[in-house]
Amino acid sequence: MYNPSLVGNAGNSLANNRLFIYEVVGLRDSQSADSTNSKIRRSGSLFITVPYQRMNQEMRRIASMGGKILSIRPFSAAAEPQTSVANSQPAQIESEVKIETLPAAAAPKKHADVPVNIYRPNAPFVGKCVANDGLLGEGGIGMVQHVKFDISAGDLRYFEGQSIGIIPPGKDHKGKPNKIRLYSIASTRHGDNVDDKTVSLCVRKLEYKDEKTGKEVEGVCSTFLCNLKPGDDVQITGPTGKEMLLPEDPEANIIMMATGTGIAPFRAYLWRMFKDNERHANPDYQFRGLAWLVFGVATTPNVLYKGELEEIQHKYPDNFKLSYAISREQKNAEGGKMYIQDRIAENADELWSLIQQEKTHVYICGLKGMETGIDAALTTAAIKSDVKWAEYRSQMKRAGRWHVETY
To answer: Given 158, 346, 365, 392, which residue is catalytic?
Structure first.
């Protein structure tokens, strides 16, 4: 375990001698936390001194302990606190970070023409399951299905990046009708058959052990969807959401970061960008930018839509880059498991270069915990340009270039 109390002796190279101050909150008490020799508090800030070459490792350690990095500042010897770094106050540390501002950009479009809530919970559309196919390879962990519904009998329209609601049959433990669950749409607006008659979802069956009873529990809606057979009825609401919509510019760069079933909206994007039938159906949108997908899964059999992804990569090598982070099979730079944040860190400089272009949009979809690691990796890359990542990300958000949907 890396111990930040030893960072001052990390070598004599110029890189090693560049020190930075991490302002951290939320570290939980543990043996790992105790090893920092620093005061751990649930409120207020903890300050940790870190050499340049250990920045990524320390970010991962902080994330694993439940901490959140509020800021990273170059350490100034002139401003070195007289007390321990852990007890320093923000005013004692002079920030030398230059904040790079984004070029002035027009406010993002409001997407007034995007369909929303065509069908509501009190009057859902009843569609029919037309296909329910397994997505895992042999030996895959769990159960993940690609479920397709016929919507031709109604007026359900949607765009790539939106979600629909599913109302599972039956009642909850209080005797009330089951609540709606939202799922990201995995098909383009034209559907998998490119005939405007279907909508598809990527669904993982939720299974977990109840902490109180020790019994295995299955998710109500995910189990219902994974067990559907062709011809079964499904109550659908929506569509909802404008956060994950693609830009209209066919020359935009699209960076996608996904874990597990978070691949769903990105499959829709990639079909719209690269599938022959889709390109024919959308003559006004012929993608010419760079699409880069970083996809985190546990094992190779858990790479969802693997055949489709690699077919696109083979056919469009100049426009589509595919990076896997397979945690139980690949190793990161420190020899540990390769998670999506490690793959982001590995490519952080190239990603940062792309992100600084006005036409680049970043999309994150999957487990909420992935955001901390992604921010940590991009913080390290941005600081090489004397840019404070948190500020830059906020500007991207305001410009409509930073899109997150995590759960």
So the answer is: 365
The residues with which 404 forms a beta bridge, in sequence order, are 364
- Say which residues have a Cβ less than 8 Å from residue 189's Cβ, sequence separation at least 6: 157, 158, 159, 160, 196, 272
Neighbours of 345 (CB within 10 A): 25
CA distance 375 to 384: 15
248-265 average pLDDT score: 97
Comparing C-alpha atoms, which of 376, 279, 318 is closest to residue 54?
376
Residues 46 and 25: their CA atoms lie apart, in Å, by: 6
Beta bridge partners of 11: none
For 197-235, the pLDDT digits (tens) are 999 999 999 998 888 888 888 999 999 999 999 999 999
Segments in 302-369 forming alpha helices (H): 306-315, 340-346, 348-355
d(Cα 173, Cα 6) in Å, to the nearest integer?
Answer: 53
Three-class DSSP category at 207? strand
pTM: 0.75
Residues with Cβ within 8 Å of 285's Cβ and at least 6 positions away in sequence, in order, are: 248, 250, 272
Task: Identify which of 257, 289, 287 has the alpha carbon closest to the alpha carbon of residue 358.
Answer: 289
Helix axes 306-315, 264-274, angle to 10 degrees: 30
Active site annotation includes 2: no
Tell me if residue 269 is catalytic: no
Catalytic one among 88, 184, 222, 327? Answer: 184
**Secondary structure in 3-state letters for 60-123:** HHHHHCCCEEEEEEECCHHHCCCCCHHHCCHHHCCCCCCCCCCCCCCCCCCCCCCCCCCEECCE
Q: What is the CA radius of gyration of the chain?
A: 23
Express each pLDDT in 43-65 by its tens digit: 466 777 777 656 666 776 777 67
The catalytic position among 22, 183, 339, 392 is: 183
Question: Is 226 part of the annotated catalytic residue set?
Answer: no
**Is 184 one of the annotated active-site residues of the chain?**
yes
Write the CB contacts of 123 (distance below 8 Å, at least 6 apart in sequence): none
Alpha helices in 228-365 (DSSP H): 264-274, 276-281, 306-315, 340-346, 348-355
Instruction: State both tokens at 162.
Output: 């939106």
Whether the bond into 239 is cis, omega within 30 of 0:
yes
